[in-house]
Write a structure and sequence with these properties.
single chain, mainly alpha, two-stranded parallel sheet
Length: 101
């Protein structure tokens, strides 16, 4: 990552490509994420591998719903990682409530 021009979330990568407007960019990410960036900027030639994440496709809405109903499938996250993630989720909840009002 130290050698990269930019590293970030899919949304941040889409924004960065939109601002910088490179003719070519290399993405090293999960395939569906690479597709999202490429779809947002068809004028850019994207190079590099996409990596199929064997775990990402295992998460489905049905499995999330089942886990919430049964309160099983506990995931433990370190507090220093959980705190910013909790803030992000809370902001999404707050925004959805604000938009619904």
């Amino acid at each position: 990552m130290a050698e990269a021009d930019f590293a970030g979330s899919t949304a941040h990568i889409i924004d960065w490509v939109g601002k910088e407007r490179p003719s070519q960019a290399m993405l090293v990410t999960e395939c569906s994420m690479a597709s999202n960036v490429a779809d947002a900027h068809p004028e850019v030639e994207f190079l590099g591998p996409c990596n199929m994440c064997p775990h990402m496709k295992k998460i489905t809405l049905q499995k999330v719903l089942w886990s919430l109903h049964s309160m099983t499938g506990q995931v433990e996250v370190e507090p220093d990682i959980a705190a910013p993630a909790r803030r992000a989720v809370q902001r999404m909840i707050d925004l959805s409530r604000w938009l619904a009002a």
